[in-house]
Design goal:
Elements lengths: L2 H14 L1 H38 L4 E11 L2 E8 L4 H10 L3 E16 L2 E10 L3 H4 L4 E4 L4 H6 L3 E4 L1 H7 L11 E4 L2 E9 L13 E5 H9 L6 E6 L5 H15 L10 E5 H44 L1 H9 L4 H38 L7 H27 L3 H6 L2
Parallel strand pairs: 4-9, 6-8
Antiparallel strand pairs: 1-2, 1-10, 1-11, 3-4, 3-7, 3-10, 5-8, 6-9, 7-8
């Protein structure tokens, strides 16, 4: 009997018991679909996190103030004011690898124009902030460095707050005077709508010069944080070292004294998050792959039942000259066919599910070649490993005893 004939007999045997064959493949189908679906979910999560971090700037460094400690309990970065506007000026003057420096002061307050008012986040920063964050404006312009130096009462509104303040008004927001915490500010720009980040909505922010906030609102030279941008992502680490050296000098820290500030590297954060999501994806895929082993056990169980049911058939085949290798190959082909067919069905279901999920979440279908090839290869291996024992049992049946079997 040729390989082609053996394959034909094996497939005919599978087709003769359609429901049993399908139930046998079910474990493989579920396993492969799960691996494909979970790997696509992991890829989508990684892509989402990467886009979120990159939207904040891929070459940004954030410097936070020190951590206050009371009774041995730390309150986290920024809880103790240690950064000043002078620190930001020193960083900008001394560190050549930087393309922008933006000291930050954040507070909350009421903003009003005519009968309209709302509670907003007041973000005080420098003229560099717009280019560092790739902000675009729908109207007007961002305030200039000259206005920051002068401590001018100018404001750039987020898109949402601009709509709230000027709802029902026919006046152009640019040039209008709004009231922020009881102080008059001239609107010089309105930002284009931005994507929200977590619980923060930058479209509700009002941006003003940091010097204005320090002079007229906080009465302090301290800033909440300092954001700096490196010339290129390649010099991020060098820039971090330069900033550390500058701040330790301006804060009069020597020797082994601990720094009273912390620097967060955006590229390092992105790398860590990507590594974490990849680990989670691998773990979920590994859990899903367990069902492939369960499916393999199901295949072996059904093949053993099939050997028992077809004992007399096997005896007849051997009696008319079928070799042990031919019988072994027939049952092994049946096992592999069940496993691979189940893998292909699972691949279609998993890929289709990922396509639908990608369309709903607008992330696209993120099924990659790796999980697909791994699933099919693993299914093929399962079919061979769990099909060998039943196939050997069938091939080793005694011809006379098999013919007598009822």
């Amino acid at each position: 009997m040729t390989i082609r004939d053996t394959l034909h007999v094996a497939m005919r045997s599978i087709a003769a018991n359609k429901m049993r064959s399908f139930l046998t493949m079910l474990g493989i189908i579920i396993g492969v679909a799960s691996v494909i679906g979970l790997s696509a979910l992991g890829e989508a999560t990684t892509l989402s996190i990467t886009q979120e971090v990159e939207s904040l700037g891929t070459n940004l460094l954030t410097i936070d103030s020190g951590s206050a400690s009371v009774g041995g309990i730390g309150f986290g970065p920024g809880s103790q004011p240690t950064l000043t506007y002078s620190d930001a000026q020193a960083i900008q003057a001394d560190d050549p690898d930087l393309s922008g420096v933006s000291p930050m002061v954040q507070s909350n307050g009421q903003i009003a124009y005519g009968p309209n008012n709302d509670s907003v986040t007041i973000q005080a920063t420098s003229a560099d902030y717009a280019s560092m964050k790739d902000l675009t404006l729908s109207e007007g312009a961002f305030f200039t460095q000259e206005e920051v130096t002068q401590g001018a009462n100018v404001a750039v509104l987020g898109s949402d707050i601009a709509q709230i303040l000027f709802a029902g008004q026919t006046v152009n927001p640019i040039g209008a005077t709004v009231d922020i915490r009881g102080l008059p500010f001239t609107v010089v720009g309105v930002l284009t709508a931005q994507n929200t980040t977590g619980f923060q909505n930058p479209n509700d922010y009002v941006n003003i010069p940091v010097t204005t906030a320090m002079n007229e609102m906080t009465g302090s030279n301290y800033v909440s944080s300092i954001i700096v941008s490196a010339q290129t992502p390649a010099v991020m680490n060098q820039a971090e070292q330069e900033i550390t050296s500058t701040l330790r000098f301006t804060h009069h820290l020597t020797g082994t004294e601990a720094s009273d500030f912390q620097i967060f590297n955006q590229a390092t954060t992105l790398s860590t998050l990507s590594s974490s999501t990849q680990t989670l994806t691998d773990m979920l895929s590994g859990v899903a792959a367990i069902s492939l082993l369960v499916g393999g056990i199901g295949i072996m169980n059904i093949m053993l039942v099939s050997v028992t049911e077809r004992t007399r058939e096997i005896g007849i085949r051997k009696a008319v000259g079928a070799k042990k290798s031919t019988v072994l190959l027939q049952f092994l082909i049946e096992s592999v066919a069940l496993s691979v067919t189940g893998a292909l069905i699972g691949l279609i279901l998993g890929g289709g599910g990922s396509e639908v999920a990608g369309a709903i979440t607008h992330s696209g279908n993120l099924v990659t070649a790796g999980p697909v090839l791994l699933s099919i290869g693993f299914a093929l291996l399962v079919g061979i490993v769990f099909g060998v024992y039943p196939a050997r049992k069938a091939a080793n049946l005694n011809t006379i005893e098999a013919l007598r079997y009822e």
